[in-house]
């Protein structure tokens, strides 16, 4: 698609298409590598940690401290073999998430969203997908969860530029999942009581493959 020739595009971290959505597929591998090589991997917070169960603070300062956080988030995500990570998953109370996620066609999407908001979809565009879902903060547990198979998120990039991100299939699930995190919701909060209990049982019966922060 043609890129939008605007000052906004040139100021932003990623180019945008002719509908104003970021093009997060170009040089995805190289960009992800650069982020994580600058970063330091941190342990993952798990369900029960208070930072995961409340709305995070808005990002208001777009400087070196935020850039360092983003680098650390990519490093932490890679260590845990995840496809998305919210700041509160490494104990930071800020509305920012990173992603390095394929869509259902296997196309890789890599980017950063600060202060995300999900766009409400009209009924005719809400086709539900009830695939399995997991979470680095609920390690080793999976459960089917119905979510729309298309998602749009608005927010800002790590330099404060307004952005729009859209995705389908697995990537749409990732955008919804990570935005949920920043408003204090884990995917197991959207399950029935029985399904939630089963997910927590799975977590209790298995060892995570990455470092986690133990709850006191």
TrEMBL record:
Enzyme class, spelled out: hydrolase
Cofactor note: Binds 1 Fe(2+) ion.
Active site: 178
Ligase is among the record's keywords: no
Superkingdom classification of source: Bacteria
A Gene Ontology molecular function term of the record: metal ion binding
EC number: 3.5.1.88
Cofactor(s), names only, from the UniProt record: Fe(2+)
Binding site for Fe cation: 135, 177, 181
HAMAP family linked: Pep_deformylase (MF_00163)
Biological role: Removes the formyl group from the N-terminal Met of newly synthesized proteins. Requires at least a dipeptide for an efficient rate of reaction. N-terminal L-methionine is a prerequisite for activity but the enzyme has broad specificity at other positions.
NCBIfam families: pept_deformyl (TIGR00079), PRK00150.1-3 (NF001159)
Family that this chain belongs to: Belongs to the polypeptide deformylase family.
PANTHER family, sorted: PEPTIDE DEFORMYLASE, PEPTIDE DEFORMYLASE, MITOCHONDRIAL
Name of this protein: Peptide deformylase
